[in-house]
Amino acid sequence: MWGVNPFEVTHFKAGFLGIPPDFEEKRVYTHGWQKQLAYQKLRFKAMLDSPGYFNHSLWDTLSGEYYRSFIEKRDYFHIFDYWRWDEQIFDNTLINDYDWKTAIDTNTTWRIGVGTAAFYNYIYYLVTGFIEHDTFKSNQIREGQMTGEKA
């Protein structure tokens, strides 16, 4: 089962490090010490090319990676382990039942509250020609939740 929304899997990010996608993985994030060691080794090598990564926030980043990847979570549950993601149902519930406010500059509700998303997606677009939302929609198409035309 998936831990978080399975449509948010972005294999292209690890692909920047030369790691091929693992389509059989049942978690959104790479899990297990061998996979993490290989990932972190490649990541560290890439960071050496940009020494600015070695700053006061590095400990927070690494400790977060450790807890996310190595510590088994037993004290909380992810909603998508029990409910299948259906964007229309979630949007309708949030907007109609909870008076969720939408953005005026887009017709999507995906990541509208994440302040940094526009910036890093701009970088992804410059480098790759696509953004996280494209990957999200592609995953929905592959799972039969949406047609390519609608996406």
The end-to-end span amounts to 25 Å
- Rounded to an integer in angstroms, the radius of gyration calculated over CA atoms is 17 Å
Count of helices?
6
For the largest beta-sheet, the strand count, sense and barrel status come to: none
Q: Kindly estimate the percentage of residues that lie in beta strands according to DSSP.
A: under 5%
Topology of this structure?
Blueprint: H1 11-15, H2 33-48, H3 58-69, H4 87-98, H5 117-128, H6 132-142
Quick recap of the structure?
With 151 residues, this protein is mostly helical. 45% of the residues lie in helices and 0% in strands.
Describe it.
With 151 residues, this protein is mainly alpha-helical. It has 2 domains: 1-84, no CATH class; 86-151, no CATH class. It has helices at residues 11-15, 33-48, 58-69, 87-98, 117-128, 132-142. The two termini are 25 Å apart.
Please name the defining characteristics of this protein.
151 residues; mainly alpha
